[in-house]
């Protein structure tokens, strides 16, 4: 042992520790000053819509929807407000995962008391790596080694130092369009692309496999909502390319095991009066505004089965009314796509 | 999760191993590496370690067997009279060949079973119009890498380059070493194995130099490659929506992505190895400065090229068949072509193996043979090119011609990448033809914005590339940037390291809006 702890080594170790200390200190300071939620909502163009909850006054939201691009293309809080009087936001970003949604909801619950959380279920089918996907698909996972995987550490550190989450703020501009300020996470898009569905919703008894990591975070998310007095609703919005019967069966199983409400709007395509010619903005992955209006309307009716409406102050109601009017004005005039 | 750029890898798997390794006496340090590596592999592979254990046992036993035969051969030859020595040598060489073949065939059998079974079934079904079902076989993590290392270990014992290891756990460490098992470099026992056994004392200078290399690797992977992937995915998933220029941009960006990712991860591995005082084999040497595809492959995935050269090219070249062919060609052709013909026959096996190793699909075989065909044509036409150059008074040693050769190599490599990345050969062909059928520069980035690739992302890729070119040119001139930085005072070094770290953290393509980017070679 003598050889290991020489004077030179102690000095070297001190230098390394000094470096680590300065690094951690800088991480903490930059996270506290520059890379915060507030800068993300103002600057980061890819996922700043997910942070729209930051602008809402405390305890004014009835519902929150979390998920990936499917939900931010399909659910319009302003239309929901106008038709049914619910105040809601969409907290979604491209490729958002169950872990992202969990941490978003954790922060939302610090300032809001939503009575309903809508979890969009496309997130169930994200995998850490191709290797994990292959194992799960072939039925070779999950197994006991998943419990030993320290993957959670990556999420914990990212949330301990927000710089790792909000480091992309340099990408956006500070001029947030009016639409972005008022849409509450919904990404308005009125492009129309005709979709040619292949094997859409072919009935099957097979089930897709869900990653244990996703299940773990879904469980945490559901528990978090329940602990905060919010009802949980699992919902799949119409998406022609990503969704199939195997996924439907898998989510159904999960919903049953957790005794959760699950609606798959793909199976209600006709009831929603959606059209492959007019309701999508791309090859079938995402709905356009026309499709989103139908989905929002249906969800509004469905949400009445939950006792979620809060009493809003006149000021809050006025704000939502004003934003809806601005939204209508915007979409009624010629505009460039954002 | 298999990720060399995750906190869990740096802090837990490598971090704990590094601290324990550094604190332990030199003699037992290898145990820390073994425990760290086995834990990393077992958890990352989700317990699918059977094939690694099987390969480990096979090469351990075959190694001991070969060693025993070599020792007996030496002892008997020493004791035998002069006239019997040759016979003893021939007899034991024969035995050794059989044992080596037994070991190599067993390891290759495991590789073929784990990686290619369903490819064979698929091909059988297609050729004979059958419907045989696919087997539920999992390709274990790092199979392609540790099997090549295993074969090289027993082959090196056979050739007398290394002594067989008696302790099977030391072979386990060599095969499952956390810095090589997922995507190489493909190490040799004589080089890496020896270092893993001796574990020299690592000093602050090792840690400092190694850390800088880790940062450089992370820069290439997180700053450039993971950002380039956005455009690559957009183009390759929807190539019909892109103009010819868009498709070219997608292919070029894939080449950038693959190079920056693979060489970046290799830099991270070499840097981490250096921090522990372990010198890892180099896998890249600025390949885009190569003037020919032959030179390119001496600079790209060097350890694979060296493996194929040592164990396939030499193996085939010194076989009886090639020797016979050589003697026949010598009688019929000029010295240049009489040497070339047997060489190209041996090269066929090298390039076929290269393509086949890369993946279980015909496109990979075509990818390997693409280089073989080009290289063979180049070699056969070389005398003609030389004559033409002379007639046209082209100075083949001039700088201008050198630049032309570099550009030509880059173009050839990019077309190879198209085959490599496209879903299948049909798609590759369609993409290739679309380059020429839809050349409208106004639609260059048509569709790119739909996939969240902003101008900022594209600009950053180019900034990163510019940095790489500058570093590459400086390094080509023989200037060692790491040394220059290392010689700076502690505070200046601290500032440079921290600045570099924060550039990667702030401008890296990860987190919200960016999916996790799988390591491409981890799937081979």
Question: Could you walk me through the main structural features you see in this protein, from its secondary elements to its overall organization?
Answer:
The complex is a heterodimer of chains A (338) and B (524). Chain A is globular, with a radius of gyration of 22 Å. Chain A is built from 14 helices and five strands. Chain A has a single domain, classed as SGNH hydrolase (Rossmann fold, 3-Layer(aba) Sandwich), CATH 3.40.50. In chain A, helix 5 (98-111) packs parallel to helix 11 (212-227). Chain A has helices at 7-33, 37-43, 69-72, 77-84, 98-111, 130-137, 144-148, 152-160, 163-166, 178-182, 212-227, 245-257, 289-303, 314-332, and strands spanning 63-67, 88-92, 116-120, 231-236, 261-264. Helix content of chain B is 73%, strand content 0%. Chain B is built from 19 helices and no strands. The longest helix of chain B has 47 residues, at 82-128. The radius of gyration of chain B is 25 Å and the shape is globular. Chain B folds into three domains: 7-201, no CATH class; 202-284 and 441-524, no CATH class; 290-421, no CATH class. Chain B has 524 residues and is mostly helical. At the A-B interface, helix 1, helix 6, helix 7, helix 8 and helix 9 of A face helix 1 and helix 19 of B.
Radius of gyration of chain A: 22 Å
Task: Estimate the mean pLDDT confidence of chain B.
Answer: 89
Oligomer: heterodimer
Q: The CATH topology of chain A, please?
A: Rossmann fold
Structure class of chain B? mainly alpha
Mean pLDDT of chain A: 85
Q: Work out the count of structural domains of chain A.
A: 1
Assess the beta-strand content of chain A as a share of residues.
Answer: 5-15%
**Count of discrete domains of chain B:** 3
Shape of chain B: globular
N-to-C CA distance of chain A: 65 Å
Which band does the percent of strand residues of chain B land in? Answer: under 5%
Name the shape of chain A in a single word. globular
Looking at this structure, what is the CATH superfamily of chain A?
A: SGNH hydrolase
The CATH architecture of chain A comes to 3-Layer(aba) Sandwich
- The N- to C-terminal Cα distance of chain B equals 17 Å
Category by helix and strand content of chain A:
alpha/beta
Instruction: Work out the radius of gyration of chain B.
Output: 25 Å
Q: What portion of residues of chain B is helical?
A: over 70%
Which consecutive residue ranges of chain A, at least 5 long each, have pLDDT under 50?
none
Count the beta strands of chain A.
5
């Amino acid at each position: 042992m003598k050889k290991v702890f020489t004077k030179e080594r102690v000095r070297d170790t001190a230098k390394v520790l000094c470096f680590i200390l300065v690094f951690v200190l800088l991480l903490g300071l930059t996270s506290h000053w520059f890379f915060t939620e507030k800068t993300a909502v103002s600057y980061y163009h890819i996922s700043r819509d997910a942070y729209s909850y930051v602008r809402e006054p405390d305890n004014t939201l009835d519902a929150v929807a979390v998920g990936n691009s499917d939900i931010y293309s399909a659910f319009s809080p302003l239309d929901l407000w106008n038709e049914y009087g619910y105040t809601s936001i969409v907290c979604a970003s491209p490729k958002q995962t169950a872990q992202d949604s969990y941490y978003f909801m954790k922060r939302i619950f610090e300032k809001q008391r939503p009575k309903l959380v809508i979890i969009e279920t496309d997130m169930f089918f994200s995998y850490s790596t191709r290797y994990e996907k292959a194992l799960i698909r072939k039925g070779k996972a999950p197994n006991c080694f998943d419990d030993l995987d320290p993957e959670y550490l990556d999420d914990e550190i990212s949330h301990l130092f927000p710089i790792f989450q909000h480091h992309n703020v340099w990408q956006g501009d500070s001029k947030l369009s009016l639409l972005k300020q008022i849409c509450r996470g919904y990404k308005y898009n009125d492009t129309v692309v005709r979709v040619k569905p292949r094997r859409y919703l072919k009935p099957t008894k097979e089930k897709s496999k869900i990653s244990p990591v996703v299940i773990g975070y879904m469980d945490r998310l559901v528990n978090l909502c329940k602990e905060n007095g919010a009802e949980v609703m699992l919902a799949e919005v119409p998406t022609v390319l990503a969704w199939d019967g195997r996924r439907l069966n898998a989510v159904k199983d999960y919903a049953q095991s957790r005794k959760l409400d699950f609606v798959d709007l793909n199976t209600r395509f006709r009831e929603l009066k959606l059209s492959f010619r007019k309701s999508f903005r791309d090859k079938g992955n995402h709905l356009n505004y026309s499709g989103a209006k139908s989905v929002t309307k249906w969800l509004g009716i469905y949400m009445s089965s939950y006792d979620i409406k809060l009493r809003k102050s006149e000021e809050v109601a006025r704000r939502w009314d004003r934003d809806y009017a601005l939204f209508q004005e915007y979409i009624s005039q010629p505009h460039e796509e954002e | 999760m298999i990720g060399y750029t995750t906190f869990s890898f740096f802090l837990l798997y490598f971090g704990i191993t590094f601290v324990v390794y550094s604190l332990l006496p030199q003699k037992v340090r290898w145990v820390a590496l073994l425990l760290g590596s086995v834990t990393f592999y077992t958890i990352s592979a989700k317990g699918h370690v059977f094939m690694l254990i099987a390969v480990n046992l096979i090469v351990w036993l075959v190694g001991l067997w070969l060693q025993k035969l070599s020792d007996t051969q030496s002892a008997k030859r020493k004791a035998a009279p002069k006239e019997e020595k040759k016979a003893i040598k021939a007899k034991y060489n024969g035995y050794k060949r059989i044992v080596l073949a037994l070991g190599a065939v067993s390891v290759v059998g495991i590789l073929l079973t784990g990686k290619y079974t369903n490819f064979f079934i698929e091909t059988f079904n297609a050729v004979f119009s059958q419907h045989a079902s696919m087997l539920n076989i999992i390709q274990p993590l790092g199979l392609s890498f540790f099997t090549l290392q295993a074969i090289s270990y027993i082959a090196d014992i056979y050739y007398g380059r290394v002594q067989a290891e008696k302790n099977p756990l030391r072979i386990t460490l060599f095969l499952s070493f956390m810095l090589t098992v997922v995507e190489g470099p493909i190490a040799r026992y004589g080089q890496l194995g020896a270092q893993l056994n001796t574990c020299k004392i690592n000093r602050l200078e090792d840690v400092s130099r190694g850390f800088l290399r880790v940062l450089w690797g992370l820069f290439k992977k997180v700053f450039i490659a993971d950002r380039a992937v956005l455009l690559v995915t957009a183009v390759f998933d929807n190539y019909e929506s892109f103009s010819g220029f868009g498709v070219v941009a997608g292919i070029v960006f894939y080449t950038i992505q693959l190079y920056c990712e693979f060489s970046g991860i290799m830099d991270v591995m070499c840097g981490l190895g250096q921090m522990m005082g372990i010198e890892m084999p180099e896998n890249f040497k600025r390949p885009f400065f190569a003037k020919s595809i032959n030179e390119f492959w001496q600079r790209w995935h060097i350890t694979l090229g060296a493996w194929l050269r040592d164990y396939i090219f030499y193996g085939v070249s010194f076989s009886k068949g090639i020797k016979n062919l050589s003697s026949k060609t010598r009688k019929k052709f000029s010295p240049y072509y009489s040497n070339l013909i047997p060489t190209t026959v041996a090269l066929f096996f090298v390039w076929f193996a290269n393509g086949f190793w890369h993946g279980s699909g015909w496109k990979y075989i075509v990818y390997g043979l693409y280089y073989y065909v080009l290289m063979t044509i180049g070699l056969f036409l070389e005398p003609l090119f030389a004559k033409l150059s002379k007639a046209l008074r082209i100075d083949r040693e001039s700088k201008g011609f050198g630049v032309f050769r570099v550009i030509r190599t880059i173009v050839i490599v990019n077309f190879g990448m198209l085959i490599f990345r496209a879903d299948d050969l049909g798609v590759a062909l369609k993409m290739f033809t679309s380059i020429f059928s839809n050349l409208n520069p106004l639609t260059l980035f048509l569709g790119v914005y739909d996939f969240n690739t902003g101008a900022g992302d594209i600009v950053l890729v180019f900034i990163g590339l510019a940095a790489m070119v500058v570093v590459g040119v400086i390094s080509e001139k023989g200037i060692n940037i790491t040394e220059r930085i290392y010689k700076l005072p502690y505070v200046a070094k601290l500032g440079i390291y921290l600045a570099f770290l924060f550039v990667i953290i702030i401008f890296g393509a990860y987190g919200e809006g960016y999916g996790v980017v799988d390591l491409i070679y981890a799937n081979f």
